[in-house]
Amino acid sequence: MFGLIKNIKWKYFRIELCFFIFLSYIISFISDLEYSYHVEHNVANFTKHFEYRIAFGTFEIAAYSLFYWGFLKRAVFNKKIVHVILGMAVFLFLQHLMQSYLANWVVSKMPIFSSELRTYTANALKSANMSYSINYPLMVVAFPLIGFTFLIRSLQQDEQMRALKEQQLMSELNYLKAQLHPHFFFNTMNNIYSLALKQSKDTAQVVAKLADMMRYILYEADQAKVSLKKEIDFLSNYVEVERIRHEQNIIQFDIQGINEVATIEPLLLLPFIENAFKHGLEQETGKGFVTIILCVMEDDITLEVSNSKATLLNPSTGIGLQNVSKRLELLYPNGHVLQVDERAETYNVTLTLQLT
To answer: Which Gene3D superfamilies match (predicted)?
Structure first.
């Protein structure tokens, strides 16, 4: 998180620096260019003032940067409006002193500038006085600086808020997945326990498939997204475990259009399938049915799960379905459609997701 915020600040530092370059150099160049074209009717005259603009623009960008990062930005971010107004008044006065006295004196003494510019600044230094117009500094310096600072404050806080929300989103998703894992293993271990009580010859096979599923959860499910094919392989193992426990002909699992490119958030579909087996089949009598159809078409995936309703149901908190509903809202707020059709004897769920 701190690294992300650091990157945000570095990004805005570059924006701020570009703004000061524009304020110190580009506006003056544009002004000279327009004057040369409209008044002197000779665009080439624009270059006469180029050296002057470079020299005094350098003083301006140094002053703007020192004032902005040293005082103005902190005052605006801390909402100290009175400090902002007073600080700007002092800055405008000091800037006038800098331009009239310090800049002229330094340029007149530096041999890197032309003799013409040094003579001009020396004469300007002799005729400098304390009086100046307030309107131009307000329009060209004060309002742009203050407005830009408030803009940066708003943009930076919005981006930091989005970063914090993203962090909260990931924390909540990790929490939901952490709840799902023990819930899944609890149900699967109950299946193995049931087979072991019957001393079923299929117990070893179920344990082997459970090992494959555990491997997937430990090494694949912690990623943000996984291959849809791997997710389907995991679901297939789960269905096979249930087929061992129940009659083959009461469980239908149909997969259509799965490709190697599509990805999906891990363990997103499992609770719907798990819920169908938990509440749709009667272990003692073998009655009921579960039908699962998974189809991928272009950028959408559709899961249809239908099951009968067992006559004897154990009380359930429905942790799995509650979690997956929350995950869908977080991960696909505008990219999923969940339809539930519950009737007296059947329960049908249709989920459509937009794949990325």
So the answer is: Histidine kinase-like ATPase, C-terminal domain (3.30.565.10)
